[in-house]
Known about the structure:
Layout (H helix, E strand, L loop, with lengths): L1 H15 L3 H9 L5 H20 L5 H28 L4 H19 L10 H19 L6 H6 L5 H25 L5 H9 L1 H15 L4 H21 L4
Keywords: Cell membrane, Membrane, Transmembrane, Transmembrane helix, Transport
Subcellular location: Cell membrane
Family: Belongs to the 4-toluene sulfonate uptake permease (TSUP) (TC 2.A.102) family.
Amino acid sequence: xxxxxxxxxxxxxxxxxxxxxxxxxxxxxxxxxxxxxxxxxxxxxxxxxxxxxxxxxxxxxxxxxxxxxxxxxxxxxxxxxxxxxxxxxxxxxxxxxxxxxxxxxxxxxxxxxxxxxxxxxxxxxxxxxxxxxxxxxxxxxxxxxxxxxxxxxxxxxxxxxxxxxxxxxxxxxxxxxxxxxxxxxxxxxxxxxxxxxxxxxxxxxxxxxxxxxxxxxxxxxxxxxxxxxxxxxxxxxxx
Length: 239
């Protein structure tokens, strides 16, 4: 199941440029704790996001523009990693489900929000800190970072690289936070390395398919599936 999950997660990322941690942690949280799922995520997430970040010429410019947000992401993630690592029972999985539902609803709503340039100076750190807190609690990197980056008015290639930058920082910070909490044993690192091959294979297949199917249609289907998965995780303690 782990290998198939990362094959599917890599495929989704290859088609739409994001979704590997969301799909992987969301599916694996149905059979293991979110902390265990997040530990398996570290290596494939880092490698695929570095690949995504370096796939264009704007890495340095994006880093100069977004470094306050990235710093806040790192601080928030490391500070809150004890939530996903230390909480027992259904709480972390339910929190993950709520985060997935929020992300899916935001995406399906299709809200065309734009952030004024003058607001970036104070909004970027706030969004980064909120993203870090959600990451440390659930292992998912997307809320509210993805809607915020989409609202900056970046072109398609710039947005893909900005997402790669944000997810890379989140991955490294989550690994540091889990290690600090003793939730990233050597065996987990080896298992995470084993998930890299299916994730890369899925990502390559997704990139091949990207030019052959309607990306908006695929994204809508992905978000509907994510909404159902998130609702299942959020409501499971009461079912």
